[in-house]
Amino acid sequence: MKNNVKKAIAGIAIVSSACAVFAAAKFSARKSISVLSREDGSGTRSAFVELFGIEKKVAGGIKVDYTTDEAAITNSTAVMMANVACDRYAIGYISLGSLNNSVKAVKIDGADACVSNIDNGSYKISRPFNIVVRDGISDAARDFVSFISSREGQSVIAANNYIKVPSTKAFVSNNASGKVVVAGSSSVSPVMEKLVEAYRSHNENVRIELQTSDSTTGIANAMSGTCDIGMASRSLKQTERAGGVYEIAIAVDGIAVIVNKENPVGNLSREQVEKIFTGEYTKWSSVSR
């Protein structure tokens, strides 16, 4: 099993020194690929390894994540982007909705990573954004959930480069008051911040606390009641459903495979991505021909 990594990146401390080193040289395809992945528990990692065939079933139907042991582990979307931006030999993956001009998203099988291509089916690397709740949540939590699923909430989703879920219902607040804790996925968190901001104009009496971690933690916290609403960038497992929670789809998001802006590689096949992240390809020359 190859998900026991040898290196871990917990912050952005290495970025400044890395930038200084790489600024002095030009890109060379003979150099080693710096593979960056996400931590165990990340919904983005779970979806990524499944969609690219990096996770495989072995005897007994057990799923094994074959991410190379040489992958450096980043603990958030922001850290992933920061390190790819400063390492011209790095490759990683992030939520498409979080993509900015500090890094470059490569085409996958010739299709650009964009909302329109997810919508038309040509870019196939996508996954759901879900919120996770228990029965019997507070009136304040129900009001915010209703807003997210409403026409107004879904307009926020669409405005932030995600594919909205169908909704024709206008939001009508129940005028609840109180505190709502929303916790989980760092991929869902950026658009959740936008939703929280938009919701305030509809109900100022609810205070929403946003806690960012990962999908598994968000789901576990929803199950235990530590938070009112969990954020997950993957579907629930059967064992989690058995814990008394259910999911509500709030958006569809793509996963962008990202490289440094100075990297001339602009298109990769799904097979090439798999071989990079399982360690079969270790030099950029393997995909630069």
Automatic annotation (TrEMBL):
Keywords: Signal
Cleavable signal peptide: 1-23
Any one Pfam family match given in the protein's UniProt record, by short name: PBP_like_2
SUPFAM superfamilies registered for this protein in UniProt: Periplasmic binding protein-like II
Keyword Signal in annotation: yes
Family matches, as InterPro entries: PBP_domain, Phosphate_ABC_transporter
PBP domain mapped to chain residues: 27-152, 174-286
Name recorded for this polypeptide: Phosphate ABC transporter substrate-binding protein, PhoT family
Annotated organism of origin: Treponema saccharophilum DSM 2985
The organism's taxonomic lineage, starting at the top: Bacteria, Pseudomonadati, Spirochaetota, Spirochaetia, Spirochaetales
